[in-house]
Amino acid sequence: MNQELRILINKLIGGEITDLEFLDLFKGNIEITSYFDKLLEVICIEKNKNDLGLLFYIGFTFDLFDERHLEMLNQLITEAWHKAHEDIAGLLQYFQSNSSVESLYKAALTKFEYLHYTNALAVKCIWALGDINTPESKEKLELLSKSKEKEIKKNALHQLKRITNSIK
User: Superkingdom, according to UniProt (predicted)?
Assistant: First the structure.
């Protein structure tokens, strides 16, 4: 990501420009969806956590994330170089893809240094697994329900109960 785009995104975040003004300034150069995809790929290769945060802001603001990003999101949620894990868990919950089950499970078990004080990521992953609601996600929830961490166990049991009750 170049400095000009960083400045433009920060102006958008800070309310100095509107969404439409951003798009007008941005679209003067390129179509946003394909550029977003290319930037996401480059940022992940470079492992640039600051640019990833800016790009996620754009992705959420302009609804640019979709199923074409699943493979990358599944990989990103288990990597420690960034701080977007909870956002990624939310996206994976939204897409409800069985391809995300293993990554969500691994992320639920991982204690990222910047989240050492909370189980919020684990809880988000557990809820995503509950919404995916496949035999594979249920199996991972059953494993998580045996956790020694009270909050993880409680949420996994809740999701298993919710899934069972939705079948009836």
Answer: Bacteria
